[in-house]
Amino acid sequence: MSPSALVGLAVALPLAGAGLVLALGKWPNLREAATLATGIALFASVVSLLGPVRAGLRPTLTLMEVVPGLSLGFQAEPLGLLFALVASFLWVVTSLYSIGYMRGHHEEHQTRFYTFFAISIASAMGVAFSANLFTLFAFYEALTLCTFPLVTHHGTEKARRAGRIYLGILLTTSVAFQLLAIIWTWQLAGTLDFRPGGILAGTASKGVLSVLLVLFVFGVGKAAVMPFHRWLPAAMVAPTPVSALLHAVAVVKAGVFTILKVAVYVFGLDLMGTLAATPWMAWVAATTIILASLVAFTKDNLKARLAYSTISQLSYIVLGAMLANRWGIIGGGMHIAMHAFGKITLFFGAGAVLVAAHETEISRMHGLGRTMPITFGAFFIGALSIVGVPPAGGAWSKWFLGLGTLEAGQIWLLAVLMLSSLLTLVYLLEVPARAFFGMPPEGEVRPEGIHEAPWPSVLALVITAVVTLVLFVHPGPVFDLVSLVVPR
Amino acid sequence: MKILGLYNYWIVIGLMMIGFYTMISRGNLVKKLVGLSVFQTSVMILYISMGKILGGTAPILIEGRENVVYTNPIPSVLILTAIVVGVATLAVGLALVVRIKEAYGTIEEDEIHEQDDVM
Amino acid sequence: MDDRVILRVGAKILIPFILLFALYVQFHGDFGPGGGFQAGVIFAAGFILYALVFGLGAAKAVLPPIVAHTCAAIGVMVYAGTGVVTLLLGGNFLDYNVLAHNAEHGQEWGIFSVETGVLITVFGVMVAIFYAFAGRRRSEP
Amino acid sequence: MSPHLPVLQVVVPLLAAPVAALVRRPRLSWLVAFLAALWAFGSAVTLLHHVLSVGPISYHIGDWAPPWGIEYRVDQVNAFVLVIVSGIAAVVLPYARASVEWEIENERIPLFYTALILCMTGLLGITVTGDVFNVFVFLEISSLSAYALIAMGQDRRALTAAYQYLIMGSVGATFIVIGIGLMYVMTGTLNMADLAQRLPAMEANRTIPVAFAFLTVGISLKLALFPLHLWLPNAYAYAPSTVTAFIASTATKVAVYMLLRFIFTVFGVAFSFDVMNLDRILTPLALAAIVFMSLSAIYQPNVKRLLAYSSVAQIGYMVLGISLASVLGVAAGILHLFNHALIKGALFMAMGCVMYRVGSVRIEAMAGLGRTMPFTMAAFVVGGLSLIGVPLTVGFISKLYLVRAALEQGMWPVAVLVLVGSLLAVIYVWKVVEVAYFRQPIGDGSIREAPLSLLIPTWVLVLANIWFGIDAKLTAGVAIRAAQALLGVGS
User: Fold this and answer.
1) What is the average pLDDT across D49-64?
2) Residue D430 contacts A where some CB pair is shorter than 8 Å
């Protein structure tokens, strides 16, 4: 099969999977098999794109010219491929995990859940492989809309309110800022195609381009740059697999991925470096990093704490883009992968605790580590990766981001990174520390019979934890792929 | 003199304002329709007066007589159409008023609004 | 109303003349002032006078409402049909020249045919409007 | 292509109307109306194709050459509008059969179809004619039949709504007649092309600006430009479902076409915008319509009324595009004219399905319909997304062009307000969606999915929303060419 057809297949496969899931709704086992099979097929087709892209090819597939000069088209380039690889691999793992979680937790409307899950992945693939800003925006909005039923899965008043915040912030920012920026770009550059070196250079004054950059950064609400971050904690009412894959990987990474892509292929790093707004936006990201870490301290609910941790970590990638140099982009790009594996492990852990011990608050997790050692062991590894210390993959991305700040001459930003790592260390490691060494308060007896979560869930979180470790030892493939984005 | 010489326009404007004011100020649905009719009539006079030429006659060709001044027939023909339209509008309007009376028991605008607000 | 002899007799004398005058206005319409609309209104007026004097029931017996409605519809068809006939004869829409052997007669026939359509429609519509209003009874005192 | 097509476009439906009244059998009169609509659609598509490939057509009624005779003139602009009007009619009529049988007494059904076809005839006539007085005549044909159609609604408020529409519509029409009369006084001609040639010489005369003012206000009343929109919400809310779907997607659109015709073709862009400064009035009013009417829509408890307010806001988008007076702006206006017809047609038809099964279109009545009437509500959701302007729907294409047109002239606050309008649309659409999908169904569970005869036409429009949102080359291309023709540049 030709590489360009594979690109189309990557978007079409999950959609077909969604149809299959819907059709097989009456037979849960077949339905889950369909999800897994689609996931594996998707991952295989994305992996087979790796060869051509590394060889320098950019397989392109133009579906339709919507209006003259504006087409719906896909293109595989290194950054998108990395995002697609991560998302499709983790979809397989998450599907495995969901089987244990959804059944163990006796969730309702499972068919609807799996169907929209597959559609969301299709949208994420569309974002990853978009050949121009229009296609990216279309799939970006599709991703928002088809995750809405997942966020409001439980249908309770709380879920509905969360859904309103979710949709409200994501649609408002994307329509009011991002769409405006996209149309403005079209007006200025006459095209919306992603091109190496950017399309905006020399089209307007520096002031206008600075405004455009600000519109893009705040317009990509999915990147959760403060003050547009409230939707992410709100989305935590969803079932844990959704929080794990979508709100730690697919959706949020689609956001920061958009920012990276805009920085590299729309503005171009040379242009970015000359704009007055760039350092300002870097500081906005830095502020988000610190503030979100501080807020994370105050959260006792494990998923809420993880959500604020995600907000903080996403801004690392935004910061990387705003450094506007090679190391910043490489660090940011690698962080997409590293953070994905680390954070999804943490969410899997949180979900496993919920299913097995019905606990959501950190203060009540004392001693659980002794009954659920595998879960909390994996959690520990994930936490190390997020903090950015060896032997976990996160160390590499933080290293390159640090190099980026030095190259940009922003020593204070490096200090922010250090401080944030310290904060992360404290608020994340508190969880396994309590679980392994904490003692229950006087007079409280934990019910008997708590043991590890169902085996598919445990298997899933072991896989992601192992991959996190492997990424420390072999960061090479990720690094090679990302460095193709910014040739020396 | 110039202002008085345009008396046909003054009639038009006067009728137009009378009709318009009636439409706005009256709450009775039939009176509103009367206002609408007066309003439309003013336009008919506007059309007819602009086609009229002093001393002009009906535009009928008579053999053997030439250099006859004719009144422009087109505005009259146009306004005939407008009259038909006016009649039709009035008929539809009155039919509506009859049915409103049957449904509400009144043709006073404020009383109708009161009944609707209760619902 | 049965005792108003003067009205009844007067109406009986007037109505034929009204109808006749309507026809005069109609048939003279293509030469002088007049035409289908005026004729239709006058014709309907004569009929409405009959209904006013002799009662709605009597009028409806002479001309059932359905006939009035049909008239309204047929008139439109006569009008538009004339246009279609001119199309079929190879002219433009409402190009009367093609209706007869020469242009003058064609114009005359064309105008006459169209005016007849107008007469029938206007008559039908006027009577239908009259029936619609006169036929209603007060629903509550 | 028959050379008589421009006139047959109007005459065939005109002949069909009395036939529909004469047959007196509901089914038969429906069939007549449907065939007339199909004919109109077919001929409109043929005309559009001809105009795009060959050029404008001029047809002389009675073979009297213009400016003496009445001319029917089809160019890129009105051929497109013809397709919209007749296309919507052709989709609405299959839908009408079941809906009308349920909403209207049997003996009045033939009259209903007669009025519907007459209304379409009038709208087609306004569009196709090149004679200004003819515009008025057809306007009244369509308006009078529209009053009658609206009055056939089940709720007694339909009567007052129709009455209100009649009064305001007649005032608007009379204003238009005054404007036409004043132009005739000055130029002695009623032919649009002839007027366009003669008017520039008389611009200094005070009568022409007065005529311009009367025409603009009269047309604005007809197209429900804020704040002259008061007749619209009630008329849309209480009319029979079919009528709402038809009128909402055609009547105001044709009025917008009239506005285009008069300010660009007859008076010319230089007079309208440089001498009369029309943009200084239209732009603020259009923006006010977008913001205030979208806000009003949020507080409506009746979904049809909510959509009606949204229509007023959407008309603001079209007028805004026109008021920019650039090729891109006018094209955006024309494009939205088409797109909004598809959007509102689909939404009102979905509401008609709800009316058919539930008997009410208040928001509370939507509770649980996501489960009991999944296809109807899915149609509503897609239509709503299109109204919001989500990519890959027609609504997005309109906003894309409109925002671009505003940015092209450096009017970025306008661009921002257009997008704010979309966000307000999110709120009022989502209000309905939440009730439909998250509330438990009320009643005894007897509510079923609407019959296929209603669903299929609805979904035809919904799919058109997506189709023309993904492949907008045709519509956008035609709109650009139409705008160029109106502004007299390029092409």
Assistant:
1) 88
2) yes
Domain positions in chain B are 2-51+71-118
What pLDDT score was predicted for residue A442? 66
| pLDDT tens sequence across D370-387 | 888 889 999 999 999 999
Q: How far is B114 from chain C (nearest CA, A)?
A: 19
Give me the pLDDT at residue A258, please.
93
What DSSP state is assigned to residue C33? S
Instruction: Give a yes or no: residue A83 inside a domain.
Output: yes
Query: Tens of pLDDT along C31-41?
Result: 666 788 889 99
B–C interface: beta-carbon pairs under 8 A: 18
Which of A22, A187, A205, A258 to probe by mutation at the D interface, max D CB count within 10 Å? A187
In 10 A of CB D69, how many CB atoms?
16
- Give the mean model confidence (pLDDT) for residues D421-433: 91
Query: ipTM score here?
Result: 0.88
Whether residue A306 is contained in a domain is answered as: yes
Instruction: Answer for the pair D278, D272: CB distance below 8 angstroms, yes or no.
Output: yes
User: DSSP label at A453?
Assistant: P
Domains: count for chain A: 1
Between chains, do B85 and D137 touch, taking CB under 8 Å as contact? yes
Collapsed DSSP state (helix, strand, coil) of residue A62:
strand
A444 found inside a domain: no
Residue A270 included in any domain: yes
Q: Do C92 and D7 touch (CB under 8 A)?
A: yes
One-letter amino acid for residue A197 of the chain: G
Give the CATH number of domain B2-51+71-118; options: 1.20.1560.10, 3.55.50.30, 1.10.287.3510, 3.40.50.300: 1.10.287.3510
Q: What is the rounded CA–CA span in Å between residue A15 and residue A21? A: 10
pLDDT score of A447 more than 80:
no
Q: In chain D, whose CA is at the least distance from the CA of C77?
A: D15
